[in-house]
Amino acid sequence: MSARSGRSAQAAPAGVDPMDVDVDEALALANDNRPGGGRPGDDRAAAHRPAPSTPQASQAPQAPQTSQAPTAPGTSTPPPRPRPRHAATSWPAARRTAARAERGPRGATGVPLDQALGLVLAAPLTALTDLPSFDTSAMDGWVVAGPGPWAVGGEGLLAGHEPPAPLADGEAAAIATGARVPPDATAVIRSEHGHIDAAGQLHPLREVAHGQDIRPRGQECRSGDLLLPAGALVTPAVLGLAAAAGYDTLTVVPRPTVEVLILGDELLTSGLPRDGLIRDALGPMLPHWLRALGVEVTSVRRLGDDAKALLKAVREASADLVVTTGGTASGPVDHVHPTLRAVDAELLVDGVAVRPGHPMLLARLKEGQHLVGLPGNPLAAVSGLLTLAEPLLRVLSGRAQDQTHSSAQRQVHDGRQQSDGDRNADAYTAPLHTVAPGHPHDTRLIPIVLRQDDGSGHEWAVPLHYNGPAMLRGIAAADGLAVIPPGGAKEGQEVEILDLPWSWNPGLPGLNPAGNEGCFT
User: Fold this and answer.
1) Euclidean distance between the first and final Cα of the chain, in Å?
2) Per-residue pLDDT for 413 more than 70?
3) Whether the bond into 501 is cis, omega within 30 of 0
4) Is-contact 481 381, C-beta < 8 A?
5) Residue 15, exposed/middle/buried by CB under 10 A (0-12, 13-18, 19+)?
6) In the prediction, which pLDDT does 84 show?
7) Which residues pair with 363 in a beta bridge?
8) Which end of the chain is more exposed for a tag (fewer CB within 10 A), N or C?
9) Checking phi first, is residue 429 left (phi over 0); if not, alpha (psi -120 to 50) or beta?
10) What is the mean pLDDT of the chain?
């Protein structure tokens, strides 16, 4: 879980500062070009190389492995057999798999309005009453009947009071916004559009139209009208509409539940790193990130590198989703794959062709329950969250894949180009401000900030420094992650942008870090 950083002038494309190239990309480029390619034990590099073709191989099939590996000298138990090498799932295919994962029975539940924010309607929202439920004044001023001038008399009409008495032709009464309009009233004259003379007569200062500034009963909707369909996200505006329409509770899809299992003996929960130990960055980050995705985090447990504890925790988990950190590779203390085999889980995604985060995985534990295995490095874990957890949780939350919290805002307010339907529903595109180096085979996710060009008015995605797998400095200042295709992207090239959840989640106001500066390439 330690960060590897360095420089490689050879790996940097023309025009790119070698300081900005992550050592992993440099090594990947170098390894891909040397005989045998790939780092020792790198299944993904091997997956991209064609199998050797020799006369011997074509003449006789290779004998299958039938027995356990021999016992190593001086040991009483055989070493674990390495997992078979396989090609990693492409990043777009991994996201589609997560979005199409079996949802299982979710049901519906009724919650008070103050608890429904960020949830999804499980039933249509229909009006329980006419809106408005009576004729009401849209302005402060005078309500009048018949042609003028009008004699102003009686007490003024205020909102929330009993129905007023009818007015005779030629009569007027002062009225407040929201107050009931007397039966058969002609219009409401705004305060600034009328004048009362010394005799108490009201004279209009402009032409009076019949029905002006009166909101008639049922103007917005009639009782029984469909206001919003099932599947709509409950935003603050939806809460206001529901309250206006007479609702005290809403029928919603319950929040998905998530259990977080933090793995690794090297993690400290307080103090400075010391003696080969490092601070746990994922324990403080993941629960809140997941809550920003609209879920209920039921528990966060630190299990270290205890295989038995991990197996027990996975077997006893009751949440819709189990999220693990670290242990997804094939090292001596990487226990996630053996645990999944022990519980007879179905691996849906086992490794993704993305940097950082390639060892991530998605498994089906049982009907309606999944596990997302995140890499242990912090930015790699963020990559796993957005690649596998977010699409899965979108489905579990009841949000259709073609619906988005922010697309309508983008289309109306800032005109950003939406990405195609095969991509993330919350994604859009923006041109890169500078060249972004890529991996030769894998998608790359890099933190960016969005900035407008004062001259053209265009919005640019500006890549940030500190984007190595173990680094959080860049993502902490970011507006989103740019999806860099294999091979890299040129300056000005439109690339897909993934929003960070606090930039759109209605339950987390004021947390968009768009104003952060620094960490620029």
Assistant:
1) 25
2) no
3) no
4) no
5) exposed
6) 54
7) 347, 371
8) C
9) beta
10) 79
